[in-house]
## 1
Amino acid sequence: MIGICHVCGNYDWDKEVEGNKITCPKCGGSWEYKKLPFFILTGCSGIGKTTTAQIIQRECEEVVTLDADIFYNIMPGETEEDNYAQIEQIQSLTNNIAQSGKAVLWTMAGNLDKVNNTYNRRFFDEVYVLALTASEADVRKRMGEGRGITDANWIQGSVDYNNYFRTHNSLGDLTFDTLDTEGKTVNEVAEEVKKWLAKHLNKA
């Protein structure tokens, strides 16, 4: 909605953005909007993204907390084109929510490499990503005992993904921070995430 020109009604994905001003290339009309950060809480399966986000949702009024998996229920996710379309819709929804004055924190495991390569990326001040990590043994325990997952390939995929976050600080052109959850309760992890959010919200 924020990207639709109020002068000529142009709804095409062709808007120019400079600072917090949007300009329509068809008629030259321009308008200001609230340009806020885009937040992502990521990590491998079973690492605690959802449980942590549920606490953030209850206790942190500064952000709206949502799960990107909701789009798998209403949009296809089989191809690269499908995945890009999901990220575009996530960012479009986020930008419209931001006009209420609140940034959005998404829990999102995959498609991180697409976040900076979309049309809707231009509407955000910055993208901040925090990856929850743990030791390999802890990840296997969380998936097996915590979630009852027995699929060996799924477990190994999560172990490998977790190890990537522990040994890198970027994925493609997207940089991320990490938070080691080893030995921490979910409430302690949530408190660390809230501090991370507050730091970047204050900067914005």
## 2
Amino acid sequence: MKLIRIVTVVSGLVFLLFAIGFIFRLPFAIAIWPWEDGRYSYLFIGSILAAVSAAALWVGWTGEFGALPAGSANVFVIALTTCIYFFKLASQGRTDMLLFAVLAALSAVASFAAFFWSLNIPLKETRLMPRLVKVSFWIFIASLFLSGRALILGAPIFPWALNPDTSVVFGCIFLGDAFYFLYGMFRPNWHNALGQLLSFLAYDLVLIVPFIGLLNTVEPARYINLIVYTAVLIYSGGLAVYYLFVNPQTRFRS
């Protein structure tokens, strides 16, 4: 297990490195994205990688591998759906997408194996998930499923215009994230919420300041989208801060 902990921590640090790369649009990071994209899309990708990094570092540092199934399910859904989409693009003559399709397929296989490997590992934690967290997670799940479907269909729900291919990939990410939260609803242990809240907090910290700055420049037709998205960031960030650092029953030192 010690080796697996080290590998998990190193993986978390690699995700963090690429999160920083996408946030600041550094060449080594954006070169791995399948197509050229815009500033805010790269920022969103960075926020997702930061979220993955936070969860991976927590699992690796604590050795709480009983929390891995939720994250593995998340990665599996994202990898499987993007794999299907990349193969579709490749079949339409965009042969440069074939490599991304194969990589996504390998990620799907690896995450599928990780899910079943970790499924029967008991959680070290015995506390139950707080009621407000459970209610909030159900709202997040419904929102992610609806938003993911809308993005895959090309609906303009983001505060900025998306490349049509990017919209589909972001939709796949949202669907995967829905399963990340959904897993905890079937095993409502606190540690099946702690990783998710850590991820949400990292995601929020990356996006909140740029989104507030976007209020002055957003297209009028997308203003409501930005307000709703920013409200979600504020609420989820507040929820994470309260239960991770303030609430005496769940904060880290407890």
## 3
Amino acid sequence: MTSAQVIDHKGNKVREIELDKEVFGLTPNKGLMHTALLRQLANARSGSANTKTRSEVRGGGKKPWRQKGTGRARAGSIRSPLWEGGGVTFGPKPRDYSSKLNKKMRVLAVKSALSARSNNLVIVDNFDAIKDGKTKEFAQVLKSAKIEEKKVLLVMEYSNDQSVLVERSARNMEMVKVVHVSNLNVKDLIEAEVVLLSEKGLDIINKRYQKDYKGEAQTPAKPKATKEKAAKAKKAPVEKKAKAAKPAKEAKPKVKDEAPKAEKPSKKSES
């Protein structure tokens, strides 16, 4: 079981707590972390690079010189890609670099990054020592924890006014990056040398990722059929077979009452 120490704002050990093995005790999936990192970097690209083709560059409507007889190479436009100031051949156009990743894979990637940083966690019982939101107050906390010269990722929960003061006191420091619990990502966790958070923030992380891990919607079980329904279901196909087995009654042909045909008078009788 992985454990971590809880310190106060002066750097003194308060107690030792056990980290949740489902969040901080996984074997890091490096391949998935790499995929999540590439996705995050790709999604951050604006994709706004743009160049003009020869049809988009202004000018070039008139043929520079006649086709033959000048001794020079034939030319149709001064905005040809071969000319200076002409269009660009196969240049970049605005595009979308974003890619998708399944939710379970994203969650597992963050868990892998948290597990990889489980030995570099610095947990503070609270940040009550920061009262005015001054940078020097947070610098003193880092100095007491002996992490003032390392890249620190400060994870805040922003559940009260105290968290806002802590964020204000830390945002101007060059080696510190502040993120919200809901914005934890693989890139920041990999780049940071130390992850600094409060004990309350740790509880929120555990609840958040335990919920994503265990709270998957399960398909409801089908209700068991009662004995009466089961008996009816068995009888139904038997009755259908019995009906199908009975030969159909042969329909008697209907004889129409034909009227007697009138005899044609013969020519002899007429005569």
